[in-house]
Amino acid sequence: MKIQILGPLSAEVNGGSIVPTASKPRQILALLALYPGRVMPVPTLMEEIWGTNLPQSALTTMQTYILQLRRRLGTAMGPGAPGAKEVLATRHGGYLLQIGPEAVDVHEYERLVTAGQSAFGEGDDDLAASLLRQALALWEGPALVDVRVGPILSIEVMRLEESRLVTVERRIDVDLRLGRHTEVIAELTELIARHPQHEGLHAQAMVALYRSGRQATALDVYRRMRIRLIDDLGVEPSPQLQRLHQAMLTVDPALDVVAGPRRGSTFDLYAA
Asked: What does the radius of gyration of the chain's CA atoms come to, in whole angstroms?
């Protein structure tokens, strides 16, 4: 079995899809896939599907959805394969998918991110860049983009999207440490437009522009973000961003890509 969460929901067995068309069974499959090998309690599944307004027939309906999933699973597995009840198993108080974590793209993504973060911390920038790129390449769109999400899945989707943004930011940190400042300008321009209050991404954009000989544009990125923060939140940029801005005004040689070791994030270069 191969399941994709990072984008449209996909679940294949022997090349055949087992993803149901109805929205509620899709939610159940997605939630079970996020925790392979772990029992998902029936109350949690019910909360995902109906929230706090459970119909009287909730338990019976839930069992019907599980039966539908097992039928699709059994058809895809074919004769001679383990029974669908062994793969989508019933346990006391819940259900679980008896598959390994490697069958779900989320877990491969998290493994690559962990390894990339470790390489980043150890200063192995080439390895970190490769691992983080592999992790991000697993994404084929917003997580569960074609699944109606309830209160449980919405939290999971939010967590995954935040992880994706952090991983992108870390990968750009590595690119900047490797002197690829010109190559990341276009990407950062799009990112700061989509995340207008994200100071880490703005710091990266400023550094990339500055190192590419575009000091005035780098300073303008700071100016526009400062105005936005003051207008929207009534606050000044963080001390880190203010110190980065001041360093650019004074042409601080520490901003040079070759100036000393770079084992921290771009944003933390000017932490107190």
From this structure: 23
Which residue type is seen at 50? W
CA 5 – CA 104 distance, rounded (Å): 7
CB contact at 8 A, 13 and 76: yes
Using CA atoms, how far apart are residues 162 and 149, in angstroms rounded to an integer?
A: 17
pLDDT the model gives residue 271: 54
The string over 76-104, giving b where at least 16 C-beta atoms fall within 10 Å of a residue's C-beta and e elsewhere, is bbeeeeeebeebbbeeeebbbbebeeebb
Helices (H) and strands (E) in the chain, counts: 11, 6
Query: Does residue 92 register a pLDDT over 60?
Result: yes
202 neighbors 225 (Cβ within 8 angstroms):
yes
Residue bearing tokens 């995954």: 160
With H, G, I as helix, E, B as strand and everything else as coil, classify residue 2.
strand
**C-alpha dist (Å) from residue 154 to 32, 52, 112:** 14, 15, 23
Count of other CB atoms within 10 angstroms of residue 43: 12
Write the burial class of residue 252 (CB in 10 Å: 0-12 exposed, 13-18 middle, 19+ buried).
middle
Do residues 3 and 44 lie in contact, with contact meaning Cβ atoms separated by under 8 Å?
no
What sign does the CA torsion over 11, 17, 22, 25 have?
A: negative
Provide the whole-model pTM: 0.87
| Segment holding 41, helix H or strand E | strand 40-41
Q: What pairs with residue 89 in β-bridges?
A: 96
pLDDT surpassing 60 at residue 272: no
Strands of the chain, DSSP E:
2-4, 10-13, 16-17, 40-41, 88-91, 94-97
Strand partners of residue 58: none
Contact 217, 181 (CB under 8 A): no
Answer whether residue 222 shows pLDDT above 60. yes
